[in-house]
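Hi W.,

Here's what went into the run:
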Amino acid sequence: MPLLSILIFGPLLVAAILAFIPRHDVGLQKAVALGGAVALFLISLLLFTGYSGAGYLFTENHAWISTSVFTSRYKVGVDGISLFLVILTTLLTPISLMASWSSIKTRVREYLIFMLVLETGVIGVFAARDMFLFYAFWEFQLIPMYFLIGIWGGANRIYATLKFFLYTLVGSLLMLVAILWLWNTAGRTFDIDTLIKNAGTPIQVQTWLFLAFALAFAIKVPLFPLHTWLPDAHTEAPTAGSVMLAGVLLKMGTYGFLRFCFPLFPEASRAFAPLFMTLAVIGIIYGAIVAAVQPDMKKLVAYSSVSHLGFVMLGLFAFNAQAWQGAVMQMVNHGISTGALFLLVGVLYDQRHTRLIREYGGVASITPLFNVVFLTAVLSSAGLPALNGFVGEFNILLGAFQASPGLTIAATTGVILAAVYLLWMFQRVMHGNVTHEENRKLKDLTHWQMAYLAPLLFLMVWLGVHPNTILSRTQGAVMATLESSRVPGSTGSQPALQPQAVSFEGGPAR
Amino acid sequence: MSNPVVSGWTPANIDVNWLLATPITILVLAGLVAMMVDAFSKKKAYVAGVALAGIAASMFACFRLWDTPAALAMSFGLKGDAATSQLTADNYALLLSLIILAAGALTVIMSLDYLKGQRLMRGEYFILLLFAMSAMILMVQATELITIFLALEAFSVSLYVLSAFARKRKRSAEAGLKYLLLGAFSSAFLLYGIALIYGTLGTTNLLEINRALASASTVGGDLSRYLLPAGIGMLLVGLGFKVAAVPFHLWTPDVYEGAPTPITAFMSVATKAAAFGVMGRVLLFAFPSARPEWEPIVVAMAIATMVVGNVVAITQNNVKRLLAYSSIAHAGYLLIAIVANDSVSLLYYLMGYAVMNIGAFAVVAHLAHDGREFSDISDFRGLAHRNPLVAVAMTIFMFSLAGIPFSIGFNAKFVLFLNAVGREYTGLVILAVLASAVSAFYYLRVVVAMWMREHDGQTAQAPARMAPGIGAVVTLCAILALLGGVVMNPLVGLASHANPSQAPGVAELPGSVARR
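Here's what came out:
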């Protein structure tokens, strides 16, 4: 069964059905969209259960474009790394739809369509095995996000969405030139495997190509100092938009480094590693400090993303299996934890229409269930052991320490700062006395809200205790990527056997 | 045989194949019939009907002539020497003719509704369109500089009148006058350029020019070292004016804004196709040996055109002016294809551009009503509310023009840039993608107005229901823009089948388009 094609085109099909449901029948529209998204999630679980071993599975390879100028094939497949990113996407889409069930009141049908189109674009990016296909999806997914922020966003939405669009586009277009160059020099093909095999470009050229790719990905991550679009986009985006943006869209950047930059330009990647690791550490600390002083909860979570993805970048540029395992784990974790945080902030915002921390206080006594869930998400995001966040960060730091002890020590302060800004926010919002009388009317989490938060809570705990669920499946892919990112002719410098990621199920992950 | 003596040009010595000219003659005949119909019938829709029938017949002729062997695709030359031919029906000319005819057909269809709404319904409108098209096709079929000049003048005269067709609107009259004055000026340059080329090489025949330049001994004397570049340069001034390349673009925004919207659509696509077609044929076919002379000029024009077109477009508040600057910008990308000796991308891009640009102008034509045009960006506000399908179509056109994937505009740019990088013009491509990023900004302004702002209620709103003709054009173009974003093989296949043919005895194009 062409599982990946179903996942890529399924959302489009559901969106097409939505277009034919009468405008006024909002209930049916929501039901169809959610039903479709849930079905797609369940289908994506088949990827998980069916995945075994290393390499690309569920590969589909069909003739697509075949002209005198160039050929490009519809080639998709997932390895251990993209597998979880695809599943994260299919998981967060229905959750986002449920979270915006009642908060989106205008132009519901268009909203649902754009959410589903976004799912198509993102899964396409993670599954593409052909450079042309990858680039098309990469740029295409800007459109739905552009509309989601621009139509259903806050007061300053048009500025924010244009900034988001143009920032990302400029980076992407320079990557396009690099892709074209690569095509010309590496065998006039867009097949990614062949490109990697042929990409023996001289280091001077590699430097430029690497920088063009890295710019596109670094803007997306976002890596300090290219992060300025992110807080704007997050503040203005509707809750569901933020969940998708932080949960999966940012991962496209880190995924790009891992999947394209390192295997295609191994020498240049290593040459720039000190620079990128430094920027990552600056991002970790800067993001954390700026987050700490935000008066707006959503902006705080947005800046925490800058900090958390700094860890991922640090791990990626450490070039060893342990750090990469941690980085992949952290990508998934960040999607879960930050997604949950955005959802919870949205729960408060929908009732009080403010996200300012000082407008709250003592909420814990009014909404006990919310309190527990919020605390779990905060602790997971802060990297408390036995919750999911810890495993990723810990492995990143262990791996990065081998590459650059100094920077890693600096990065470790980010872990402490994360606890500071998150717990401080939690304390000001949830504890103390009720300072605003309006807050007494806040409702606790409904069954509906619990229904979409529960999967995330479950994953926070489960992945904290059984990280091997992910680590054992990413291991093969990480080793393979590491192997293909080796600098040719320097086998000695890369020990064949790296220390494996540490999990808590006794010994290295298997 | 290399230098045919003039006395050889007697009727008996000339090899004439009238069949090759059928796409032109059919249109002229249709124009004459339409004149009669116009004179004797009150219903102007009949005139349009004749026009459409003529266009369809001409298209059919193009299809029949497709893939005529190179030796037979030449006409009006001396017997036994194809290199003296003055008319060709190679696939290159036929594909350009088809683009022009398709643009004309869509223009006629949307004009019916537009003219009714603007109370401009007159028969001569369609007749002039037919004559303009016939001259454009003559121009792309011609392999002779004088014929090219005559054809260019012939279609320009029609377009001068058509630009001023809404003569009671000041802007339309101004557009016609401006186009006429500046156009006449640029034609003079073109003619002077032809004269200088004749003075240097002793011929105005493209195929003979190619032959003469290939055997360098023909170019004698010190004077020709300066005369030939001057001639080519002036030729480029004349053609640069027609394709709206910077610095010969100043007429474009005013004429595009003032002319009736369907005519703007037609000009932006058909004139561009004809003029770029000729530019490609002249530079890449007749003057490949003189590349060092013209390449710097075209490169400079491409850079200036991309930069000026895209940057100035940002400040426009009228969608027709915005699209005028956007058409300047697209001329810049097309000039890259000329520099890169890439007729495949040139043709493919022109096809893609025709689809998305005519669609966009059709939406602008839809907004016009009650004898006025409403083409300010603010008139597009809230369109997604009032008329979602039109807004969706316009959004597709805007994203396609901006070059966002899964649209024909992206694929056209991709192929063009790919070939340019493959031929070592990476610098130009980097500039082009940066210019595209700028272009996204102004195309998005239209999208923002339609989807994210509310109509202010100050100006009259667009009719909620779409007129059938405009609706058909918009729908067709939107579907093609999307379909062309996923399916590339047929159109690129057509384009790569349409290299300018070469007569026997003519030098091969250096670095000619790779046929793999």
